[in-house]
Design brief:
The chain is α+β, with helices and mostly antiparallel strands. About 40% of the residues lie in helices and about 25% in strands. The chain folds into 2 domains: about 5-55, no CATH class; about 60-105.
Length: about 110
């Protein structure tokens, strides 16, 4: 039985579905497309992507070092540090790491 398709890419037929995942800083929808040989396969890929997002397996494409280190400091390390050390680390993060050129590309 032939699979129903709704999109052609590079001469091949695919079934394409799209989903929105919030809005960017300009208010534009963030859309992602999922392709499969048929509708069921494309929906399976969408569900796998949503599950990976829930688990935190799919990182943001531009992760700046300052927010990443701040999260590490206050959510993971905080319990093992005294208030004085925590304050010093926070100052270090604000002065040294809040540079626009310090970011990680995935």
């Amino acid at each position: 039985m032939a699979s129903k398709t709704n999109y052609t890419m590079n001469g091949k037929e695919y079934f394409r579905i799209s989903a929105s995942f919030g809005r960017d800083s300009n208010g534009k929808l963030i859309r992602k497309f999922f392709y499969g040989k048929n509708k069921k396969e494309a929906e399976k890929k969408l569900e796998e992507y949503r599950y990976s997002l829930k688990q935190g397996l799919i990182p943001d494409k531009n992760i700046f070092l300052y927010p990443l280190m701040e999260t590490w400091l206050f959510e993971i390390i905080r319990n093992g540090l005294s208030l004085l050390h925590l304050t010093h680390m926070k100052i270090f993060l604000e002065i040294i790491l809040k540079q626009p050129h310090l970011h990680i590309r995935c």
